[in-house]
Description:
By secondary structure, the chain is of the alpha/beta class.
Amino acid sequence: MMRLTHFAPAFLCNLAYAVGNILSVGRRGKKPSISTLDTVFIYVLVETGLDLTKLAAVIHRSESVVKSAVDRVRGPINVVLRRTWFENRRRHVPDLGSSEPQVAIATDAVPFAVGKPHVRFEESKIYWDQHHGLYALKKEVSVLCNPPHYCVFAFPGFVGSRHDFAEYSQNAEARYAEYLKKTQAEITAFPQFPSLYWLQILDSGYMGDAHTNFGRVVLRKPSSMRDQQERDCNAECARIRVVVEQFFGRLKKLWGITVTPYRFDHTHFDVDVDNAILLTNEHIAAGNHLGDGDDLFFWQCVHSRCQSTNTP
């Protein structure tokens, strides 16, 4: 089971128990033909990228029954996982050995392929992500800079043609200011850092005024740096920010649904991808820490897309 789902049976049993408690509220009518535990197991297999038609054939059920089971649990699974990871988000613990100890979260947008919409070209082209060369929905994600580098934010998807900075600058203050503001306990524990906010780090694509009260560290292009000191500082910031790419790599390594074109109705996109993100947190929490191989896998995915770039 662990080889198929990336989790020990105990985790899936506990998840199914919590999901069952949600499903049992106000339940009426005929009992589902597939148990909650089996349905959770099926859903996680779907997240790994297993084809629904093939899965239905293996378990000797009709595809419509399996699809109905997936529809039944995706929402409750999301509720359970969000309670764990997003209702009480992990806080930053500064690395006093770093030259940038106040950088709390690394933020970036990641594209997820979708099939070319079967509509007029004028309507479908908004999904075209020119930078990555695919039809996509993108999500803005933030990862803790201190180990074990959990995802602490994942926001609703936006169309591939929208620039990452446009999405970020429109929403940054509302999304991050409260979280990045230091608690009184943090101010007391780290008096050497008198600022009221922790910092956020982003890549060079986020240059510009985002109208935020909190501070941002934006990586710079080599041509804009004047001396070695600035280059060294930028290199340290890049080292810190790599965790968000490592998280994306782990996400795509575990969950095939985030690699192949998304094949369900787009109304389910945010729930399915958020579940993959939160299950990645659970995978990290089980002792599978991020490493160099994860960001390498992410860039291999990016490179493979670039190699097969098509025009819209």
